[in-house]
């Protein structure tokens, strides 16, 4: 096919593409998100203490996270994906949405946002965390990180971070050793180390060396528990 | 995520090397396909001074079982580890006639290839070019060749990929072999943009270089080029960039720039008028 003969076809394609591009809405490709999120589902090593969400966060500190909305739209599906306070949503792995080349729609300019899979430690309903269990959870998160990023092999687990709502009563988090209890310090900061949103109250528990028989006890359920690597 | 999103829409080093799209996990029974059309401006053949502008069909398909087609190369992802990709690879090596190299089909991903397209009858442009590509006049035609081999890619980080592909079956006697080595770095300057930068090199055996850069005594008589018997070794070094702009969920504009410089025996061939070449392409593709 010569370039002169191809030109009309290219113009038709461009016009068709222009019509599609003119449709309103901030979107990301469901297929692209799917291929990132499904890696965790296919991961075959222990992961019972960790979970994976799809996270939408403002890129910069000045942009408010409140009011962010995420939805999945395709020819036959319209789903709202509720975001928690840390911007995480349960990501539906749906063949129908994939086959229909669905889009994830946002109510903010996408250039202001960061979208990514986010692995965190599962919150316990009783609020009592054995140090050994937290360390095991951190190791599971680190092993998964190494699975998706070979450069993480030099990192090691050093602790976990509990994140609570930034407004309201100070969270109560204590370190229990036998009968003794000690309150852990509460600091403002981000729920996850690489999050720009610093509007949380956080409590960091660093693993003792050598491992100690102790518990971390939370009065209120944290919004998220992040593994800390260094 | 960064890597996976970027690699979906990024690529480079694709105009002459047979590399592979990234592993694409999807539901069982699903597929991810791009088809489109654009234009490419490239040397009439490797080492030619003359440039040729032509239409560039874009084709990339991936299935849930790991099989992919990118340009006119095809292979299968066997690894289920995100940091590693390997598997068998088939590719079509471009043929060459007195009018230059045959045309190409592009892909949209990192390392997606540009390969032969089954050609229609020579058009006016080709006839005109034939007259202009003087150093191939009197040289024997080289047919298209199906090459077979494998690929192995390794991610140092989610953004940085080392690529390898080894293919055999090219050259007149189908005993040519080439080994493409490269490194690719993907950045995302915006939510719907990705930019992939690459550097690479190609090592070939003697049979490969003899076919594409050599001149036999018979061809010396018919073409006027001095007889030349190149050795194997480093054939070329490559620098490239590919920019992909997804301006709608199903539409992508993919543009690539590649600089290649022939080396060693290939560069010294009497067929080579200009050892450094630039290939530029842009295409619009529909995802379905």
Please provide a written account of the structure:
The complex is a heterodimer of chains A (230) and B (288). With 230 residues, chain A is an alpha+beta fold. Chain A folds into two domains: 25-119, no CATH class; 126-229, no CATH class. In chain A, 24% of the residues lie in helices and 33% in strands. Chain A has four helices and 15 strands. In chain A, the strands form four sheets. A four-stranded antiparallel sheet of chain A has the order 1-6-3-4. Chain A is globular, with a radius of gyration of 22 Å. With 288 residues, chain B is mainly β. Chain B has helices spanning 2-8, 124-132, 206-213, 217-223, 264-267; strands spanning 31-43, 51-63, 67-70, 73-76, 84-93, 96-97, 100-101, 104-105, 115-116, 145-157, 160-170, 176-190, 193-204, 233-248, 251-262, 276-287. Residues 1-18 and 110-132 of chain B have low confidence and may be disordered. In chain B, a hairpin with a 2-residue loop joins strand 10 (145-157) and strand 11. The longest helix of chain B is centred in the middle third of the chain and has 9 residues, at 124-132. At the A-B interface, helix 1, strand 1, helix 2, helix 3 and strand 7 of A face helix 1, strand 1, strand 2, strand 10 and strand 14 of B.
Please work out how many helical segments of chain A DSSP would assign: 4
Strand content of chain B: over 45%
The CATH architecture of chain B comes to Beta Barrel
Q: Name the overall outline of chain A.
A: globular
> How would you state the average pLDDT of chain A, rounded?
88
Number of separate helices of chain B: 5
Radius of gyration from the alpha-carbon trace of chain B, in angstroms = 18 Å
In the CATH scheme, the class of chain B would be Mainly Beta
- Helix and strand content put the structural class of chain A at alpha+beta
**Helix coverage percent of residues of chain A?**
10-25%
Mean pLDDT of chain B: 83
Strand order of the largest sheet of chain B: 1-2-3-4-5-10-11-12-13-14-15-16
In total, how many beta strands of chain A?
15
Parts with pLDDT < 50 across at least 5 consecutive residues of chain A: 19-24
How many domains make up the coordinates of chain B? 1
Oligomer: heterodimer
Largest sheet of chain B: 12 strands, antiparallel, barrel
N- to C-terminal separation of chain A? 56 Å
